[in-house]
Design a protein that fits this description.
alpha/beta; FAD/NAD(P)-binding domain; 2 domains; 5-stranded parallel β-sheet; 10 helices; 26% helix
């Protein structure tokens, strides 16, 4: 619904969007469609965020061999599908062109102020909690804009996280954020530290060129193939997944993965110390074969760096020429003072990963991680925020939102390995359903709903008799399939 809104007399615009990556474009598209007056600032000179390998904003994390780990239809914004003649898993340059096309199609590009880094977002003085009277946004060029709402969409893959390891390393080392092409590994002894998607991609890139490739993991990892039973694996799920008890859903995934590629410990990897979906799994169709061929060896955690050698926790010592830290990222919001919104160990106190309960008008988009695509989820987030700004939806009370955040954190701690990597996890279909339910919160008497804990991330609980029966039936069918 297009519905023009105008800022109060003391404000310049209704909203400011920070960033022009996927989340920022989703936000701008939603605001433009609703007639909400806004400004958008981008640190660099182009749209697309981390998907632009040549992005000059410092956030580029793409590399020459990068492809999506989620399939084309599951990744695209629902309102702007990727072309059907594209491959199932498009390359980074196709994804970058997709975002440029989206920005051009919806008239977003000309409304972006490029080369304008936001350096401060401050609440205006007044009664009530910070943000109640609006916000002031300041750029590095000295421009200031006052606004009712700030939509933060600067991403969470811009500041590499490096582990503190005893000793020092005298070879070549870099974070996966700085990796671009595989010739750097030619003839080298390579150690990749970390088994996330980037770590596995880089190890697989190095395997044909390097003298040796070691892939280090602390906890082991569950590897999900890109295809199962002839289809992209993420297309085997559906919105019905959101209605399954988590124990049933996890059992289905475990059976699916085992039937497709077997267990990690049967394919040359250490046995994970957690069940599937108890940590963020990794998507790869190459790793198992390269391990089976002897081109990649999976090893344990690093204990110390010893010059041109690395000592592992099992006492093994290996000579290493190139050390790649595929160790994730730190959430960075340098333009927000800690008193406004504090980030602790990558945890953000956000209702449904978007709303700062005690900071009216402050929204964060794209600060989520899921098994599969988070890009499509960003448009759902943006649509919800658009509804809030135009009055089409309302929020629950501050206390209800704070209570949701507390319960969500406890649920995350129970389900996932304790790690900064798991502070933003959501379940794809459950999250879509949760956001759609929030969009239906109209605020009339009798229509107020209490936010449910399981909407964003499911937690293992006792299974009902009906669910247990369903699980047994699924297990029997999967076992029968494997037996064939």
């Amino acid at each position: 619904m297009s519905r023009s809104t105008f800022p109060p007399d003391h404000l310049d615009v209704e909203a400011v969007v920070i960033g022009a990556g996927p989340a920022g474009l989703a936000a701008a598209k939603t605001l433009a469609a609703r007639g909400v007056s806004y400004r958008q600032f981008e640190k660099g000179s182009m749209v697309g965020g981390l998907w632009r390998i040549d992005n000059d904003n410092g956030a580029a994390a793409a590399y020459e061999t990068l492809h999506l780990n989620s399939s084309r239809p599951r990744t695209a914004f629902p309102s702007h599908p990727m072309p059907e003649d594209w491959p199932d898993y498009p390359s980074h340059d196709l994804v970058a062109s997709y975002f440029q096309d989206l920005a051009d199609r919806f008239g977003l590009t000309e409304r972006i102020t490029f080369n304008a880094e936001v350096v401060a977002v401050e609440p205006l003085d007044g009664d009530g909690p910070p943000g109640a009277e609006g916000w002031q946004v300041t750029t590095a060029t000295g421009e200031t804009v006052t606004t009712r709402a700030v939509l933060v969409a600067n991403g969470h893959h811009g500041v590499p996280r490096l582990p503190e390891l005893p000793g020092s390393f005298t070879g070549t080392s870099f974070h996966s954020h700085d990796y671009r092409e595989p010739t750097v590994f030619d003839g080298k002894r390579v150690l990749v530290l970390g088994v996330g998607n980037s770590g596995m991609d880089i190890a697989c890139d190095a395997a044909p060129l390097a003298e040796q490739v070691l892939l280090s993991t602390r906890h082991g990892v569950h590897v999900i193939p890109k295809y199962a039973f002839g289809k992209p694996v993420d297309q085997l799920s559906s919105p019905l997944t959101a209605r399954l008890p988590f124990t049933v859903e996890r059992a289905l995934y475990e059976l699916l993965v085992r039937a497709s590629v077997g267990r990690p410990q049967d394919r040359g990897l250490p046995r994970p110390d957690h069940r599937l979906l108890g940590a963020h799994p990794t998507v790869s169709s190459q790793l198992y074969d390269l391990v089976g061929h002897g081109d990649i060896e999976v090893v344990g955690d690093v204990e110390a760096l010893e010059g041109d050698k690395v000592r592992f926790t099992d006492g093994r010592v290996e000579a290493v020429d190139v050390l790649v830290y595929a160790t994730g990222y730190q959430v960075s919001l340098p333009f927000l003072a800690p008193a406004v919104l504090e980030v602790q160990d990558n945890q953000l106190p956000l209702y449904h990963r978007v709303v700062a309960p005690e900071r009216p008008g402050l929204y964060l988009l794209g600060f989520i991680q899921t098994v599969g695509a988070n890009i499509a989820l960003m448009e759902h987030q943006a649509e919800w925020v658009g509804d809030l700004l135009t009055g089409e939806a309302v929020l629950p009370s501050v206390e209800e939102m704070r209570d949701w955040v507390r319960r969500d954190r406890r649920a995350m701690a129970r389900r996932y390995l304790r790690s900064e990597r798991h502070t933003m996890q959501v379940d794809y279909w459950r999250y879509i359903r949760a956001i759609e339910q929030e969009r239906q919160r109209k605020g009339q008497a009798g229509l107020r709903i209490t936010p449910r804990l399981g909407d964003a991330v499911a937690v293992t609980r006792g299974v009902s008799g009906r669910a247990s029966a369903a699980l047994r039936l699924v297990s029997e069918r999967a076992a029968d399939r494997v037996g064939r």
